[in-house]
Amino acid sequence: MNSLRTKLPYLFLLPGVTLVLAFNLVPFINTLAISFKNSKLILPGETFAGFHNYQVVLTHTRFWYSLFITLSFAIVSICLEAILGLCLGLLMNRLSRGNSFLRICILIPWTIPTVVTAKIWQWMFDYNLGIINYLLEVLGITRINWLGNSLLAFFSLTVADVWKTAPFVAIIVLAGLSSIPQEMHKASIIDGANSWQRLRFIVLPLLLPVLGVAILFRAIDALRIFDLVYVLTGGGPGGSTETLSVYAYKLFFYKGDFGQGAATSVIILLLVAGFGYFYTKKSFGEGMR
Predict the structure, then answer these.
(1) What is the pLDDT along the chain (289 residues), one digit of tens a residue?
(2) CB 37 within 8 A of CB 118
(3) Torsion sign across C-alpha atoms 22, 27, 33, 39
(4) Which range of residues forms the domain containing residue 82?
(5) Residue 33 and residue 39: Cα distance in Å, rounded?
(6) Are 125 and 132 in contact (CB under 8 A)?
(7) How far is 157 from 230, CA to CA, in rounded Å?
(8) Residue 251: inside a domain, yes or no?
(9) Are 172 and 213 in contact (CB under 8 A)?
(10) What is the CATH number of the domain that holds 54?
(11) 115 occurs within a structural domain
(12) Number of domains forming the structure of the chain
């Protein structure tokens, strides 16, 4: 009887573990195996290639440019999302329960599917029919080709991503704010601290671990972003918004080189896993000891 009680929790975990293995581990092993093969759409068979696919990918200038675009996008978007998410979280915390409708409005962008978000912003940035260019013309400013210029396309992509994911950071910040004891605020008020001093010396220091978790989640998503880029800009113009995931996709389905596409996917996984490991160790290592 005791043995059954000991094993029962593992039986409840079995369906979830099975799904994880089926939809994550098995495809990863398959991708890893393909990355060591000379597998192309135009070739009927597959031959073992060793590390040749990795060598070709890592010596290609387009890979390094896509890596630069990915890192630049991740840094810019995460910084903006952290700042805006912190401000939204503080605003949501100050709203009373009667203003729950405003909280819902703030969170709406996060609930919209990424593909839908990309199409919305694509229409808004449209040169001829976009509402943004219409408003510029109302103000007497000439139309801007938002998605046809390299720098502006990168800016447009960043704006769309920040608009969608800043509410996610705000939710985590709001959860962190709710965990701060009210006694600390009351004691600081008695001591004569104003709102800015309470924010600087009480709220922000206590929110840093929570904000660190939000940044970790957003960094992992930003480093492997695909759907927003593919739908909004397609990696253009001229590859100026081509992230590593889009580059791997094009190797798979445009070039038909499954080996190099799989090798690029494995490199993306190693990049994300390496960042997650070192960031976690640096930010939370002392607390986990």
Answers:
(1) 556 567 777 778 888 888 888 888 888 888 889 889 888 877 667 788 889 999 999 999 999 999 999 999 999 999 999 999 998 888 888 776 556 777 788 888 998 999 999 999 999 999 888 899 999 999 988 999 999 889 999 999 999 999 999 999 999 988 888 887 777 767 777 767 777 777 777 778 888 888 888 999 999 999 999 999 999 998 888 888 999 999 999 998 888 888 999 999 999 999 999 998 898 888 766 544 4
(2) no
(3) positive
(4) 48-279
(5) 10
(6) yes
(7) 10
(8) yes
(9) yes
(10) 1.10.3720.10
(11) yes
(12) 1
Q: Is residue 173 part of a domain?
A: yes
Residue 1 covered by a domain: no
